[in-house]
Design goal:
The chain is α+β, with helices and mostly antiparallel strands. The protein is built from ten helices and eight strands.
């Protein structure tokens, strides 16, 4: 029994330890980062709400194709005060087209209880259905559907913008992580140089200046490393904000720039792909189509509306003959016609407003196409330039690494000075950092090209 308890405690401890290490060293991939951002980012959630609004508008527009039914019921208590009707009890002549017939009737107060309090009950069921409305209803449905398509494109645009921001933050984190690794490697090399210099100084081969020089370089790179680690924390915070994660969350990016540049192909995108597939372009096109339908709706404002109606009513205690307590019910059906004769040019003004808005969108589309053409050409030129720089930097790095290797052997054998060794190491470090920067910029240009195309 004791042995089982000890084994259980050991397994639990190992699990806790492994979980703690897993949390401390948790890696997050680019795909996982984009997934978290799309799920949690408030901007995307707001864009989704816009789509829901458009869906609700479509539902409202479609409701006009169904009969509109309403039920109204009133029950109230009222009283008739004596003397409220001065003609009560008075005999008045009966007229026929303004001519007395010779008959007289006695005027009564409100029925069914003359000069007394009474209750009144009224119930009405009304049904109205527009038969013809100048296609306003049909165009309203089309307009809201186009609006929903526009909002869907805006949602996609928000998603793609967020992806681009996540990629930018992610690649910046990778870049800084690789730079920190380069600086750590330089520090290890400098410490090796320092040990060589100290050994050579003891043997009288090197001067104390070599030792002090390497110690100074070590301190310089330590300060650079601290600066880079601070920049890395800032970049991590930026990525956490995009993913809507708390500041206390602990993770690191997965991979390195070299692996991403090797596995990420150049997007095959043409200018026509961008001008036809860009989400903002598509959104504007849908908005313009929605406005076309709205123009038709406004233009039909003065067209006649034909409708059918029906009514069923139940009444009690109302003020009409034969002034009794009888419950009455009945129905009425028919058709109606509504014509707006003059609205003070209100309809015309609405149509002009819609046309002006359409012109505004059309001009904005032209400007957007020019902007997209410029961005596409610039991105392609930047990619080609970076590709050429990458080839040159890779060759330069090979030469610098070989030169540093030779300089290390030469310094160890007393052929080169510490300054020459430092120069060789600095050239190699610059070549590595330059190549890392090129890789980062290439990945950002690829992401920009994908974003412009809407893919």
């Amino acid at each position: 029994m004791k042995r089982n308890i000890k084994l259980l405690i050991l397994i639990t401890g190992l699990l806790v330890f492994s979980m703690a290490n897993g949390m401390a060293q948790q890696k997050i991939s680019l795909q996982e980062a984009m997934r978290l951002a799309l799920e949690n980012n408030p901007a995307v959630k707001a864009a989704k709400s816009q789509v829901d609004i458009a869906k609700a508008k479509t539902m409202q527009a479609k409701s006009t194709f169904y009969p509109q039914a309403s039920f109204l019921s009133k029950y109230f208590y009222t009283n008739n005060l004596p003397g409220m009707y001065p003609l009560a009890g008075v005999s008045v002549p009966v007229l026929n087209n303004g001519t007395p017939t010779g008959d007289n009737i006695i005027m009564h107060p409100m029925a069914p209880y003359p000069n007394r309090s009474r209750d009144v009950m009224q119930m009405n069921l009304n049904i109205v259905y527009p038969i013809y409305a100048g296609q306003k209803r049909l165009n309203a449905v089309k307009s809201t559907e186009k609006l929903k398509a526009a909002y869907n494109r805006q949602l996609q645009q928000a998603r793609e913008e967020l992806k681009l921001k996540v990629k930018t933050a992610y690649y910046n984190n990778l870049f800084l992580l690789d730079v920190i690794n380069v600086y750590n490697l330089v520090l290890r090399q400098l410490n090796q140089h320092l040990q060589l210099a100290k050994a050579a100084y003891k043997e009288g081969v090197r001067s104390e200046f070599d030792v002090l020089n390497f110690e100074s370089k070590i301190e310089e790179f330590k300060h650079r490393l601290v600066e880079m680690e601070g920049n890395k924390r800032i970049a991590e915070t930026a990525l956490k904000n995009l993913l809507a994660l708390p500041d206390s969350s602990n993770f690191d990016v997965e991979g390195n720039l070299k692996s991403y540049i090797q596995t990420t192909p150049v997007p095959t995108v043409s200018l026509s792909d961008i001008q036809n597939g860009n989400n903002k372009v598509k959104s504007l096109q849908h908005m313009k189509e929605a406005l076309k339908e709205k123009e038709k709706i406004e233009a039909a404002g003065n067209l006649p509306t034909l409708f059918a109606f029906g009514n069923y009513h139940i009444l009690h205690g109302m003020d009409f003959p034969p002034f009794d307590k009888t419950w009455r019910n009945g129905y009425a059906v028919g058709v109606g016609l509504k014509i707006n004769l003059f609205d003070g040019n209100r309809t015309k003004g609405k149509v002009e407003e819609v046309k002006a808005t359409m012109d505004k969108i059309k001009n904005y589309q032209k400007g957007l196409n020019l902007q997209l053409r410029f961005l596409f050409n610039k991105t392609i030129e930047d990619i080609q330039s970076l590709k050429a720089q990458q080839v040159a930097s890779e060759d330069h790095l090979k030469v610098a690494e070989k030169a540093y290797e030779i300089a290390g052997v030469a310094y160890k054998n007393g052929v080169l000075t510490n300054i020459e060794l430092n120069d060789a190491q600095l050239n190699m470090t610059k070549a590595k950092l330059s190549l890392l920067n090129i890789h980062k910029n290439l990945l950002l240009e690829y992401a920009q090209l994908q974003f412009l195309s809407g893919k």
